[in-house]
Amino acid sequence: MSLMSRVGRFWLMALLPVAVLLWQFTAFMPHLTTAPLSYLLLAMLGWYGIIAGFCALLSWPLALLLRGFSGWLLVPAAAVVGLLLWVDLEVFEQYRFHLSPFVFQLFLSQPGEVIEFSWLTWLISIGALLLSLLLFTGFWRISSKQWRQWPVWAAILMAFLSSQIWHAVADARGMNHITILTRNLPIYQPVTAKRFMAKHGWATAHPESDALNVHEKGALHYPLSPVTATVTPKLNVLYVLIDTWRADELNSTVSPNITAFATSPDTKRYLDHFSGGNSTQAGIFSLFYSLPATYWGSFDDSQQSPVLMDLFKNAGYQFGIYGSATLRSPAFDKTVFSGIRPIHSEAGEERRWKRDRNAVDQFESFLNDRDKQKPFFGFLFFDTVHAYDFPDDFEPKFQPYWDRVDHIKLNNDFDPAPYRNRYRTAMRYADSLVGKLLANLKQQGLLDNTVIIISADHGEEFNDHHKNYWGHGSNYSDAQVKVPLVIHWPGQGQGEVDYRTSHFDLVPTLAQGVFGAKAPLANYSVGKLLSDSSPRPWLLVGSYYNYALKSPKELVVTYPTGQTEVMDNNLNPSSSQPPASAIKDALGMMGHFYR
Fold first, then answer.
1. What is the Cα 173 distance to its own chain's centre?
2. Phi, psi for 418 (deg, rounded to 5)
3. 133: which of 56, 79, 123, 248 fits an S-S bond (Cβ 3.0–4.6 Å)?
4. For residues 288 and 306, is the Cβ–Cβ distance under 8 A?
5. What pLDDT sits at residue 574?
6. Could you give the strand order of the β-sheet that contains 343-345, starting from the edge strand earlier in sequence?
7. Which one has a higher pLDDT value, 20 or 107?
8. Cβ–Cβ contacts within 10 Å for residue 244, how many?
């Protein structure tokens, strides 16, 4: 019995460093100043205290079986838990999502593509593990001292019950300033009981404040009717995509070649254009399917190609697909380019700038070797900007300049100028490759019969709103989802387009403009034609794990926990209620292609 008591005391003491780390997450809680602190304290004590209790229960059988080795088992286990919590804090600070099976899969399947750790981060992690081992070894020794622990366990149970009931009532009554607090805590799962409370008259239902939860009802049904070409296409189509290129970096200083091309004959620049998401998966998916990112899982499972690519295949186009980053994770080879081979990827090269350079060279070889009597579809996806990479002797570099990217150094007080200047230098290198490509196309006379689309999958943030957001995939500000769009289309005129457009609009525009498709847009798309200037009050944007509605003035963001948060486009909390009509439209989009 004394050994079991010692195990219980050990896990109770383990809550102390856990509490210190958990408190760091309060820096990401915008409503903390207006919500009762007592709720947060009860929630943290109750939830993580209960977890400590389960750890104690699981440890007891092992401790009884291996009496002499109990400390050797519990100390490393607790140290690993502490390390994971610290890593979770570091990951959340940069990317705003917690460790989960999804994140581990993302890290292992796309190393360095989404979540990137420098050697300094790894070194500090090893140091954190050693410190954690030392700390929990001390706890195990102290746990041999006798003290009454049942009052603490009783307080934990009371805190757990009271915080869960508090959350359920707040959720049923639409008190988002309370429910939004715990969404930032790792593995926290609060209780909800809206229907139960509304049924008994204890709360009024607020369906417009619910999260934009979409449930797949039946099988995927895409497209709703066949989409076929009514004309023999004669135009070549070329996509040139630059990973992580934000809209305001299309200028004569950072991207002079593309900026000059944007003012050339038959070329239009779209000034208020948005990706369908803040990540590569969501951005590319929205660009080629014209569907919200919530459909990704269904198309990934079914490996169904997009209507647009089927039109190209059926018309006998020649394909030149060259991705600097791998096109197999996310599985674009089984979705966007399903049934198209070969797909060329330069993922084997160590340096990303070499991958990009090789992709351009290979595509130019494709242009020379192809059958000139048939149209071609080209796809180039540059990765050098995403990796902040360029040749060591590439000049001039923007100053001040960060010699080495160490994400662990990023915080709310970090000066973003050297970091962003490294990004801009990488963008200027990518621009030089695009300039070389455009010059080659012009020399071969291909500008007269080729639609050229130059854009990005998503943007990149450099703590623009002083809320410690860096990179992408973490919010839906303009920095992360507003991207450049330049389209060269022979015979379609030139100029600047200032109304709102989306990646969703490319598929219907090409389907009608290149193939003369007559099917209603709603049968295969949620977008509009790029020529349609009618107002678009809300856009649906997504990521790997959540999605949002975005208007010119505010955001309605949803979370996997089922919570919804309204904020302005500077990411400040708003007291506005989620727009019921826009949510209804979004739910319709996300369920439209299920039977």
1. 30
2. -65, -35
3. 79
4. yes
5. 87
6. 343-345, 318-323, 376-382, 236-242, 450-455, 485-488, 267-274, 495-502
7. 20
8. 27
pLDDT at 95 over 70: no
Return d(Cα 556, Cα 571) in angstroms, integer: 10
* Distance between first and last Cα of the chain: 59
Q: What is the spatial distance between Cα 383 and Cα 59, in angstroms, rounded to a whole number? A: 47
485-488/267-274 β-pairing: antiparallel
Instruction: Note whether 182 and 167 are within 8 A (CB).
Output: yes
Question: H-type helices in 230-351, by residue range?
Answer: 256-261, 280-289, 296-302, 307-314
Cα-to-chain-centroid distance, residue 595: 28
List Cα–Cα distances, 151 to 12, 180, 453, in angstroms.
12, 30, 66
Report the pLDDT value the prediction gives residue 214, as an integer from 0 to 100: 47
What are 440's two structure tokens? 């080659």
How much is the pTM?
0.78
Residue that is written with structure tokens 């090893």 in the block: 126
Output helix, strand, coil percentages for the chain, rounded to the nearest 5: 45, 15, 40
The better pLDDT of the pair 313, 28 is held by 313
Nearest Cα to Cα of residue 437 among 344, 364, 352, 346: 364
Contact criterion met (CB below 8 Å) for 79 and 132: yes
